[in-house]
Amino acid sequence: MPTPSRKSRRQFLQNLAAAGTASILFPSARGALGYESPNDRPVFATIGLRNQGWAITSKSFRFADFAALADVDANVLDENVQKVEKNQGKKPDAYKDYRKVLDRKDIDAVMIATPDHWHTKIAVEAMHAGKDVYCEKPLTLTIAEGKLIEKVVKETGRVFQVGTMQRTESGQRFLQAIALVRNGRIGTVQKVTCGINGMEASPVIPAVAVPDGLDWDFWLGPAAKVPYRALPEMRQGYGGGVPLFSNCHYSFRNWHEYSGGKLTDWGAHHVDIACWAIGATDTGPSKVAPVEYSLPVDYKDGYPTVNDRYNAATRFKIRVDMPHDVEMIITSEGDNGILFEGSEGRFFVNRGKIAGKPVDDLKENPLPDGAIEEVYGGKVSENHTANFIEGMKSRKQPISDVWSHNRMLEICHLSNIAMRLGRELKWDPVKREIIDDAQANSLLARENRKGFEINI
């Protein structure tokens, strides 16, 4: 089966526009999102394929053709090539080096689901290569990386969707929550609590031989060169099939070298919705204070003193001073989800439920017609990928834009810095820097390892 011509793919924007909103939102038998023929569909590639890489790829088959996949683990790559071929009837090309994907002129967009420390380098280089980008959350490893991505999006005009799919999916519960807040159903918002779970500390994890098929140096990429570490016990359930304790697959989230623990994992979801609801998507906090927290290793000057076990916070309670005198609490305790409290009521929302008296009152006093659509900025998309492709068509930024994402993710990054240094931080949301604390400001950026600088 030949690859669609560049000319036919260019027609997809025109065809989408001609199809109209109904076809875009309710795909017909002729094709998803208004495509008149299979050759008109945009061509995608996915970079990073474990867990979320497969998740975002598999839910995108209806809307795009996948011409290529890239992963530094040959086993992961081979498995996903087979799965994609089975689902779309055509075998995608396979690469260890993502740059070969970016060199291809036939690929319109990339989906990035690598570990967090790779996101910015790949995303920036993809945009400069003329690709639109869908990147998993959390978007960045540092606040400085977020500023760079914003700059490149503006310079290149590329469409960029962040994978905070709670904005589109989860049965629209989070959109309903925002509509309740905006329509005054809890009065003046006073407090919002984001429950994002904690994590367990690890035992000492020894350096061992790198598994067959994994290019460990390439996996590390921009991060410092260190030994591969793992214990024999294997992880079960979601993310399974890899060591339960390691500094690589799945467990990378527990290391500040590659991610930000639960603060940037689940925080990227719930803090995002909280900021959206209280109207803080284009600003930031004034202060971030670690009330209670536990770090699994000792820190000195903001850096862990040992490198043989997890180092991200295991338990925490962070108080954040937000605009309009709203107190935000980010905690590892209690239910995973968001509790909104106001002068006239409170309610709770997560991916499985939305509950509380303001929700019960909807039976007798429903939200105004169009309240959900007003939050979303129009008809709610079928899923997060559909919204991304609608943005590709219109050349407008999707619902999870980089600017709002970075503003809320700054809260999560600052929370981690505050715990690493053991003190509260005052934040200037205009200059986007920490006030009167040079040491803390030095943690807003991180230098890439030589040979893995960002090529722009």
- At CATH's second level, what is the architecture of the largest domain? 2-Layer Sandwich
Radius of gyration: 22 Å
Determine and state the CATH class of the largest domain.
Answer: Alpha Beta
Low-confidence stretches: 1-8, 12-36
Question: On the 0-100 scale, what is the average pLDDT?
Answer: 93
Distance between the termini: 34 Å
Beta fraction? 15-25%
Q: Total strand count, please?
A: 17
Number of domains: 2
Spatial order of the strands forming the largest sheet = 15-14-13-7-12-11-8-16-17
Number of helices: 15
Give the SSE layout.
Elements: H1 6-25, E1 43-47, H2 52-58, E2 65-70, H3 74-88, E3 93-95, H4 98-102, E4 109-112, H5 116-128, E5 132-135, H6 143-156, E6 160-162, H7 173-182, E7 189-195, H8 216-220, H9 261-265, H10 267-277, E8 287-294, E9 299-300, E10 303-304, E11 315-322, E12 326-331, E13 337-342, E14 345-349, E15 354-355, H11 357-360, H12 371-376, H13 384-394, H14 402-421, E16 425-428, E17 433-434, H15 438-441
Parallel strand pairs: 1-2, 1-4, 2-3, 4-5, 5-6, 7-12
Antiparallel strand pairs: 7-13, 8-11, 8-16, 9-10, 11-12, 13-14, 14-15, 16-17
Helix pairs in contact: 1-13, 5-6, 6-14, 7-10, 10-14
